[in-house]
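Notes taken during the Thursday session

The instructor put the following on the board and asked us to keep it in front of us for the whole hour. The protein is Phosphoanhydride phosphohydrolase. We were told not to look anything up and to reason only from what is written here. First, the residues (424 in total):
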Amino acid sequence: MSRLFRDLAILSCIWLQTGSAQAATPAPQPAAPILERVVLVARHGIRSPTHPIAELDAHTHRQWQAWPVAPGQLTTHGQRDLALMGAALGQHYRQAGVLPARGCTAGVLAVWSDAADQRTLQTGNIMAHALLPGCPVTPGSLPPGTHDPVFNDLPTQAGPALQHAIMTELSTTLAQDQKTRPANVRQAQAMAQAVVQPAGCSTTDSPCFTQPDRATWHKGAPHLSGGLSQSADVAEDMLLEYAQGMSCADIGWGYPDMRHVIDVLQPAHNHASRLVRRLPVLAFPRGHILAGMITDLLTGGSVRGPAGDMIAATTPIILFAGHDSTLDMLAAIFGLDWSFSDLPDPTGPDTTLGFETWRMPDGQRRVRAVIFHQGLDALRTEQSMTAEPETLPLPACHPGQDGSCTLGDFTRTFTERLDAYQHR
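Then, after some discussion, the predicted structure tokens were revealed:
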């Protein structure tokens, strides 16, 4: 039984005793909390590096392993892992009473996938059919290859003023980080150097993973360049190689104990993501549409997507298929944070963020944020899983002891936060 359901069981099992000396007759139990609606946001599955392997070879002066798919595409292994996650989510929410216990019921699931990449389109399709096996499900999206503002509205807003604000904040954050960078991040950079090119910082044409960092604006978005970003890329690519099931002897060119090395490397990737993707001045303009849709859906309303498609007020489960950057921007907007003991990347393949609306026995409606994931070795070996969500406190809206907020407090807080950033 998951921690969430144990918490709910405690809430619903309140007994009253009579004053009778001969027998104590319990009063009727109050009705149990009812899960009314769930909004899920999933990262796509295991993919190949987004840059061609030849570019990685040239940049690192190393020969990286070949992948069975084109750059940035889901692998067959990744598709199977996604199906396992979708099946586990389906079982979890059937037990919670949101999905039908058996058979197909029209209108119980809506899926919207980011059309910008094939991997997110595939993710939405795979997870939809795994959530409702054997049932007709048609995920929605814009035409393939189309930019979707639901997942990233920054390109339509990044005028000179916003660009200046983002770059100023990022540069200030980066300057402060140079003085306060965590020790495990510096250790990750040193490990990247040791694995890839131990003498790289002493030559002019080899990568130096400890060189200074700077912020640049490229193709309508901010980016980091320098040692941290290079270390982050190495960390992510090696984690993906491991998750894909590649031989440990071939990951890292024979460097020993690569499973441990991947854990040591990953803080560089996580730190770079926090510096950029979770920067509020960037996250809000990028994610305000999706965050607004989530807020509206949790209140029980309907929403209309960018193609005019309507997610009905009666749809109990909604899934958005996006990227790790999608999870990072929502974490920044909603004040969330999490980590896993068995997955060094908190936004690793298949990780799924959930927002749930519960009606409590007293009629009050509360919102909980939850996170689902598969461990790195589970991804590597395609292990079947049972969904065990972790409840994430929503600190911005004064959560209760179980981490949840009243629906009114949730909607008021995040509407105010979104409005503040939209009109800054």
